[in-house]
Design brief:
The chain is α/β, with parallel strands linked by helices. The protein is built from 3 helices and 5 strands. Strand 2 (33-34) and strand 3 form a beta hairpin. The chain is globular. Strands 1-4-5 form a 3-stranded parallel β-sheet, with helices on both faces. Strands 2-3 form a two-stranded antiparallel ribbon. It has helices at 19-29, 60-72, 100-124; strands at residues 5-11, 33-34, 37-38, 46-52, 76-84.
Amino acid sequence: VAHDGILIATPEYNGSMPPLLKNAIDWVSRVRKDGDRPLQPLPGKVVAICSSSNGHFAGIRSAAHLRAVLSHIQMEVIAPQCSVPNAGEAFDENGDFVAERLRKSMHNVCRTLIERAWLLSARER
């Protein structure tokens, strides 16, 4: 599989991740072959999580549930995550974060994901 790292951004629905996200993860995690070649698209891959909600909790419950699911299927979930409260007001007209702390948080998530994915892919070369 050609990806070294994955970033998943999820809203929070009723205190958890959306059912379509869970369903997509379930289906992809079941893939075992690409033609005659064995294939495991998710185990061992590095993944970062971002979450959001319209409320003050910033989707942290959906992020926690997602982290548990991804860890269970043996993905390496990095520690930094970006959780965005009051999502409807968090972005300016250009789609950038209004709050500097959210920009810094997202930068940290992306930097850590890229660095960790690079280390693991270098080990496989």
